[in-house]
Amino acid sequence: MSLEEDIEREVAAATLQAMSGGNEPERLNELLVLLERTAQSLLDRHQREAPPATPLHCKEGCTPCCYTKHILLTPPEALLLLGMIETCGFRFAVTLAARSTRPGCPLLDHLGQCRFYAHRPLMCRAFHSLDVEACKKGVGEEGMDVPIWPPHFEIYTHIQTGLARGMMEKGLAVPQLDLRKVLGMEAPTRLLWEQWLRGENPFELARME
Ligand code: SF4
Fold first, then answer.
1. Residue of 63, 82, 90, 113 to mutate, ligand 1, most atoms within 8 A of C-beta
2. Please, where are the H alpha helices in the chain?
3. Is the pLDDT of residue 139 over 80?
């Protein structure tokens, strides 16, 4: 079995486990923290065995890829992020920003920094570049053409796929969601959690096209 299949299978199993025994939001939050640690240790291993030709330029505060038009995320990522935004008192402001024509992610603050960097979706973690100048040139373009280090992108996408597989095995709706549309939703997060955990799909309007 390949490493990719291993990641997806193990993440799917961990997701199913997190979804049994109640208090799903808290347990899924813990799972995402654990998955980030797992991704980092896999990346460290790849770095030791076959490092990229040049170092990754990505770090907190570097935001050209935050002008990408569509960021894909899964329902649990969406719900946990919305919950954090709500807890911090930014839900209304973020909803307005998501519905505006302002370019860039609605989570960028007035200084152009990600307000929820520690809670960003897996796809934001997957994005990376070996050339920051190429990122700056490609700002806002569909499918930015930047040199990447494949293991970095693949590890996060396999984690996201494993997460989705676990949800599907649990019988939950797992539409592919668009970050901007998710952030533009108005329903309280608690209600969205309840509907989604009942097997409904409260995200119809936030689907990725
Ligand atoms: S969530 Fe944060 S890191 Fe992701 S696109 Fe939005 S501002 Fe950028």
1. 63
2. 3-18, 24-49, 75-87, 91-99, 122-126, 132-137, 150-169, 179-183, 189-197
3. no
